[in-house]
Amino acid sequence: MQSADLGSTPSSGPPGPLLPLTGEKGGIASTGDYIALLKPRVMSLVVFTALVGYVAAPGQGDAVLGFAAILAIAIGAGGSGALNMWFDADIDAVMTRTRARPIPSGRVAREEALMLGLTLSALSVVTMQLAAGPLAAALLAFTIFFYAVVYTMWLKRSTPQNIVIGGLAGALPPAIAWAAKTGALSLDAWLLVAIIFFWTPPHFWALSLLQKEDYAAARVPMLPVTSGAQTTRLHIFAYSLLLAPLGFAPVLSGLGGTLYGVLSALGGVAFVALALRVLSSRAGESDAAQNKPARDLFGFSILYLFTLFAALLVERGLGV
Amino acid sequence: MSVPVTLTPEELRARQRRNLWIALAIVAFVVLVFAITLAQLGGAVLERPL
Q1: Where do the domains of chain A lie, and which CATH numbers do they carry?
Q2: Does A65 contact B17 at a Cβ distance shorter than 8 Å?
Q3: What is the pTM of this model?
Q4: Which residues of B touch A127 (CB under 8 A)?
């Protein structure tokens, strides 16, 4: 099936009246429901990569302003997460992985999520402007806009390249933090962005191989739905070939040291090996028992990114 | 004319909880802006002619 076939999804355009606007269906919202709207797991990855960007950037930096900048990025991520849940409530209600979220379960009204998302997004940009100036604030505003509008409202429902282009939003936090500390951007900052940008497609496509039916049911044009599992496996392998050398590039630019070099080289080889295993498997086909290579790659991809950024944090933070 | 809504005790508690969190968030934001202002002005902010 081609992506054009999905152009008339019921979920394209503004959210339809598929769900209650008042939240009365599923009982009273708890504090945890409002926290869930902020996508805390995504937020934790954003905060971590932003922290590494801040620590790795040259200069001393001010502890209070650094804390405020990272907090602003976290709040911005939370706000854009709430906007994503507001818009995607119809898709979330269909998919197994997301149907227990606060809006589709009826505990939080869609308008509440919209207001929370808009408020937090605005507050985060204002805070960033106060703490770090216009470049970091503009980058943060652009990132929120890109995730909430370009990715969520447009790309996600219209093209199988959704997570490739949309991945820029998740890749920018280290550059925002870098700009917050130095007031400028450098090659090293863009390298950190590039690593996350090229990491995102194999990471999400591995997951989408496992949840192909879910995406198909929600009519989200993920690559396995539009082009099949074999093409997806090939794309995963191709991106892993781009990612592995890119992950090592900070050593050549001087940003990463010996520890980073060893870990990124070993991690890159392992990433390509696992992607090759996915390519030669039947992951994403009708037999779920064949999905283990994709599941392994998905799990390892998280470890890989965490290890690379943790190594930079150790080297640049502790000066080792 | 709209019909007045009577909240259950559980709904009232939930509203109080939400209000408390909103109040805490506003106070935290005020403190944050204060701290940012001090940090931007630098350490010599209090050493000025009055």
Answers
A1: 26-185 (1.10.357.140), 186-320 (1.20.120)
A2: no
A3: 0.88
A4: 29, 32-33, 36
